[in-house]
Structures
1.
Amino acid sequence: MRKHQELSLEQIIEQMRVDKLSSDDFCLYAKEYGELRLNSLYWVSDYPDVVEDRDVYPTDVAEQGLQLIYYGEQLIDVLAAALEEKPDASPQDLVEALKYYHQHDSFMPFEP
């Protein structure tokens, strides 16, 4: 995924589905942590560096005062697991899977 751009969660999900994203070398950031929404915009940038046990955010993130929303590795894993279990999952189903993972630290089970 191209970094240093603002995308909606719907665009990110679509890009993951179409391009079969395998590179998880990105993070999602936003001005404030709120409920994940399809039409909300998120800044795509680099992972924070860890210096002396502290996260040091990328310059573009720090300058905009953004907060970490999702690590790329987790986002790709959650979306891939959801699509494996439910290949016809709607974008909103995938948002629900992301929310579930964030709250429970486990993958959301889909009803058969």
2.
Amino acid sequence: MNKICTDVTIEAPINEVWDLLTDFDNYGEWNPFVTNISGKLEQGSRLDIFLQPPETKGMRIVPLVTKVEPINEFRWKGNLWVKGIFDGEHAFRLEELENNRTRMIQCERFRGILAPLVLHMIGVKIRKGFESMNYSLKRECEKRN
């Protein structure tokens, strides 16, 4: 399956993790993977995102927000080039753990004609980008907590 999933446990309450994860105006201050994001976090709206996987030039996407469940999850669907060539559905999920801890899960399911080829070429870099974002979110939340 063409899916990349990563997760991290954060020593901070779920609402604080959600607040930072959805504070798009400040992504550039802490997020090495999604270096810029703008738009409204509401179902049906478009976001304007610049992704910077390690060792790449980066890429701009303009995905559609498909789900927003405050404090628990948000998702978007986007594509590179033309729909059906290389499409992705990205999800951020938060799970409340004991002792004011939170598990953040970041996944993307890739589809399209070129998905296997593109993932073969840059899948490792995308995973590293997810992990870099996860650990940066963890550091920033724990620093504030």
